[in-house]
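Pipeline run #58 for the internal structure catalog. This entry was flagged by the ingest filter as a single-chain record with no existing model, so it goes straight to prediction. Upstream metadata was stripped on purpose; only the residue string is passed forward. Reviewer on rotation: M.T. Logging verbosity set to normal.
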Amino acid sequence: MYQVYLIDDEPWVLIGLERLISWEKYGFCVVGKSTSSREAWGQIVEKKPDVVITDIRMPGLNGLELLGKMKKEKLDSEVVLVSGFAEFEYARTAIREGAFDYLVKPVNKEQLTDCIQRLGKLLDEKNKKAETRSVSETIDMISKYKGECSAWEFLCDTAKSELPKRSYYMACLYRFEKVSQVSDIQTIADTVFNTSIVPIGEKEVLAVIGMDLHQNEGYYAKKILEKMRVNKKEEPQRMVYGCSIIFAKEVQMYKLYARAKNACDSAQFAGIEMLVDHRGGNWRGSTELIQQIRYQRNSIEELEQLVQSGEILLDELWKTILMMRQAYADSQNEPNQIGHNCESAEDLLRTYKNCNRFFDTLKEVLTFDESKQMMKQIWEYIDCNYMENKTAAALGTELGISQGYLSQLVKKETGKTYSELIQQKKLEKAKELLKYSEKTVGQIAEETGYSDYYYFTKIFKRLTNLSPTEYRKQEKK
């Protein structure tokens, strides 16, 4: 979904604008609103919404000034200005300055819907172009190093000279908030390491490092970043970067790049400055958490914390989502909606931008009917253990709930008491045995949990108006 930020110094206008249409229906969500443009500025810089809808005439920082400030800071948000009839020429000036559109107060549903639909098409096109450009540039840079090409061969090729082979190799992918000033290949030679720094897009730089000393990945990543800034006088700016693990001896170039990219994507998704790729294998506790997702909302919150801390990277999250889809569908008997519009880990980042948006959406689309799931467990227990005559208190202890809650839940969901459910199951089993087996009534009584033949006969007759023998004769006619 595309993010929208709303600004108007009149609170009731702001509330009305937010409630005027179903934003989600058109692929948008309101991520923030403010009655102060100065206060809004900090949130716009932080959230980087796709769209800002703002009133033109406001105290402090007016709409045109806000638009100019956003352009100066190279924020890529589309701006829609809202004005009164008297400011028509004022709004036209804003359009010439780069605003997407203006809306005339009072804004009605048709106006806003039309504007949002056009914005959706524009943003879709922008994303396609940016994605195509990024992919194209990456392919151009990496294509000749696919297959069996090693990191050492890459370093020699970019340095245009034969370099000494190193003991270890790794890669770092740096992703800057603004356009990076690194525009051409740089090489750094040292007694213990060699590095080639290659721009692969307007905002991305790949560094491949060969070294003889096995320091931790973060040490080399930060050292290269410092070198880039010194060489190009690049001012510090917001960025994320990801590192492959350090590989011993030869390693294929495409593998280094793929692992660094996964770590960088994961850092961006989690909102962490730097992450190192994992060494493979499932993160601890994955199986247990997937099982919990069948019944517990807090298992989603646990997963969110693991992603936010960097313990689970994006590719690992995607594998987990695929398992969650099946687990949730099995337990809830509903079509799953977990990341339904995504087909890969990269789609998660492209669609949701960050993990907060993803998990907020996830919690909305998942409905955890805990009473329904608890009843499922109770029924499963009764089906398998009805002959044990376990009390409601004992079963409640086993399931981790009180006797009172269990009794209330059963009554609410079935209209019967717990004892009546046990009795019903015993009766069903007794009928089945009377109809299809040659066992005596005494044997059937024992198999269905009745130690007293006469008590079994009494209960059976009270529930069916027939004795067990009469029932058997009737069913076998």
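catalog note: The first strand starts at residue 2 and ends at 7.
catalog note: Residues 109-142 form the longest helix (34 residues).
status: ready for reviewer M.T.
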